[in-house]
Amino acid sequence: MSILSTNFKKSAFFMVVLLLLVSLIIPSVSADQGGKNNQKVGVVNTGRIVENINEDWTFYKGAQSADENFSESNFNDSSWQQISLPHTWNVEDGIDGGENYEGYYQGDGWYRKELTIPNSYKDKELFLQFEAANKEAEVFVNGKSVHTNIGGYLAFTVDISDHVKYGQKNIVAVRVNNEVKDSAPLSGDFTFFGGIYRSVNLVVTDKTHIDVEDDGSTTGVYVTIPNDKSIEKRAKVNLTVPVKVSSDDAKSKSNSIEVRAEIKDAEGKVRSRTELKIDGKKLKSAEVSGDSAEFKGEMKVNNPHLWNGTNDPYQYTVEVTVTRKGKVIDQVNEKVGFRYFSVDPDKGFILNGESYPLHGVNIHQDRKGYGNAVPNEVRAEDFELIKEIGANTLRVAHYQHSQYV
After folding, report:
1. What is each CA distance from 328 to 122, 223, 276, 322, 348, in whole angstroms?
2. Is the pLDDT of residue 27 over 80?
């Protein structure tokens, strides 16, 4: 999700304060990552299934030899360690935090999991959605390398639709490497814990769907709200939704694909609705490049209930729905808070026209006994402690944290 504000002041101080607020301003709406495992999330009328596949993996720390192939379907991994995600191999040897520590392992780690793909998914699109893996991850399906991701802190999504066997068991293997290479950050005063240290989901969609591969987005819905006092009377909301369009839908002259959006308040009342279009046109009359289309629209919410930090963190829900002939084939929700803010060198931080003193802490994503593979229920304890000391601001250091955080 992207919540953007206009009229940014290009000052270093402003950007620091923006960093401090980012985790409070941008809420989380992704599937559980590190709580209940192997949980299938899919409301019947949304057309999308999100299945957490954190349980029942095997793990081996080390590189394969020249005569081994850890990704092959028939490879015998019975001697490997049985693990569940999130997982890191540096829980103990990474606590020193320095590359010069003799026992700190940097290199390959291998993961394998068996996935049974039902025949009912045959006409769908299938994706593996990794919340993160540090620092390089190569994904194999049934022995074939299908994707390599470099970068240890961003989510990434892999299309496996053409690589799985439907109605059969499939082997997913992932080679992860945490050596420092040409990817940011090149160095840091923190440990580069290796492993698949956040959740992995199997996402199943219609062939026409809100793009789940768009820059690692968990939902593909981008919301822009104004940073201006005018928001008190009327909030103008701009939506951008990239949609993958199947060849059948793109070529159909009687195309009936529609993308609609609603904004609901915290009580569930619809405050605004619109149909999103491509350059002002419906899909059947718009120009589509390849299989991708960008739907846009503007919505207005009169006299919105403003988001006011920890004092009153009121949020609205933006619900985006894709239909074909009136039938819902995909649907996602995002949370937004309406607010405007500024920074004054004498008065400090101003939220919704009022002084809002910032009291907060800095947080890293690791914890003793877990490394960086911290389950959500454990991370929740950290936030309870932060709230207990009276903090109303959080700085997340020094990288992208999980969607949960």
Report:
1. 19, 21, 15, 6, 47
2. no
